Amino acid sequence: MHEKFETSHLRAKDRLSYWRDAVCRNLNGITCRCPDETPFNARLVANRTEDHIIARLSGSRHRAIRTEKARREHGDDFFVLFYQLEGPMGVSFNDTEFELQPNDLYIYDGRQNHQLIFESHFNHIAIRVPRYKLRDRWQSLEQRGSFHLKAGTDPMTRLLGANIRAMAGLANEMPPAQLERAIDNAFDLFNGHVSDMAENRSGTAAGHIGGIYARALTFIDRHVADSDLSSELVADHLGISRRYLDRIFQQNGESVHETIQSLRLQNCASELASQEGRFQGIADIAYGWGFQNAAHFSKAFRKKYNQSPSDYRNSLLRPGAIADRAK
């Protein structure tokens, strides 16, 4: 499906509100902010398949902000790859800040809140893919949540950029299945280059450990709803000892148990925020994602989200919240 949005034909005072409604809120699930004194203008041309989006965006000075509320309302089970064509793009998430220059690439995890900062005119290509498409391919992204690849003199990065630019130019001529294959191939090329860089920096042992970690995450993701999922089952599937698996996970900041529980809580939160979840019992949702005890689920949910599951759902059902989601 081909989509096009632009503001140039609108009155200056109507452009930002149109962009917020048509693109930021409905298409990207972000908040768009622009200084009052700055004339706003923007354009987006996108091609969408069932699971993928490739879009070319250009615009003037503004900020694009993805918040916790937006993640709950619009989902976060995806990655986005940016290829910067013109102008700088500032990126801010957690305690990290950096700037993309033309021909740089940047990939981020939709589960992270972030800001994209445009201090002047920009032009870039954005490709969005579902998480499951990268899980079986990726060796290190799940551990980092984002990756910035500077163009410099690196020939592979330049090749990636040329590939993405050509794909965006031909996207409207490709049938959906062909476009998805082209996007998957681009991500395979990106993944292979980044994995080579990681191994060169850290040695083949680190690459091997990263591969085990990625395969463990894939198994957990596929079986997270099974109430008997445990570190023992994951280790058995991988053919390694539980102690070795625990060491690998601890190096990445969470135990196997914590990783499983965190993913279950994220899935429960997403279901509580969905239209279908409004009519389900909270305990049923918890049991459906592998929790065996409703009291334990409520305690863990409150610790992660600073409110009970019922309060979390009710906060999304306030009249104002419903109106926001309907826009």
TrEMBL record:
Taxonomic lineage of the native organism: Bacteria, Pseudomonadati, Pseudomonadota, Alphaproteobacteria, Rhodobacterales
SUPFAM superfamilies given in the database record: Homeodomain-like, Regulatory protein AraC
InterPro entries in UniProt: AraC-bd_2, AraC_XylS_family_regulators, Homeodomain-like_sf, HTH-like, HTH_AraC, Tscrpt_reg_AraC-type_HTH
Superkingdom as given in the UniProt entry: Bacteria
Stated name of the protein: Helix-turn-helix domain-containing protein
Stretches assigned to the HTH araC/xylS-type domain: 214-315
Keyword annotations from UniProtKB, A to Z: DNA-binding, Transcription, Transcription regulation
Extent of the signal sequence: none
Species of provenance: Paracoccus fistulariae
PROSITE patterns: HTH_ARAC_FAMILY_2
